[in-house]
Recover the amino acids of this structure.
């Protein structure tokens, strides 16, 4: 079961990062900050999870990176969505909607024999 759990968490993180990059290119800290802000501080992505995910998504062609300057005038790697990344985001959102809907049905189901 741990591998399936890891796959689910990895897919969810990928989807959140892709969604965050759909708006504009961002550096790693910008991605983490945006996810935390939009989720009302409920979701907090650790660097140890983010950077391997970014490298994996870049290898898959979902994002690309380039160097630039941050708001604080520091050199930073910026990530942006590719066309393949937009397609992956759409597929991920569809799968998430289907799975979360199914989970909702189970949670709302009346217990039989209880």
């Amino acid at each position: 079961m741990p591998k399936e759990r890891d796959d689910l968490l990895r897919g969810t993180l990928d989807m959140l990062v892709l969604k965050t990059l759909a708006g504009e290119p961002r550096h790693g800290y910008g991605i983490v900050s945006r996810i935390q802000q939009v989720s009302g501080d409920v979701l907090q992505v650790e660097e140890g999870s983010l950077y391997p995910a970014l490298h994996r998504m870049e290898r898959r062609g979902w994002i690309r990176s380039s160097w630039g300057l941050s708001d604080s005038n520091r050199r930073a790697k910026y990530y942006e969505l590719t066309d393949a990344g937009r397609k992956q985001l759409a597929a991920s959102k569809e799968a998430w909607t289907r799975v979360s809907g199914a989970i909702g049905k189970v949670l709302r189901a009346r217990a039989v024999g209880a």
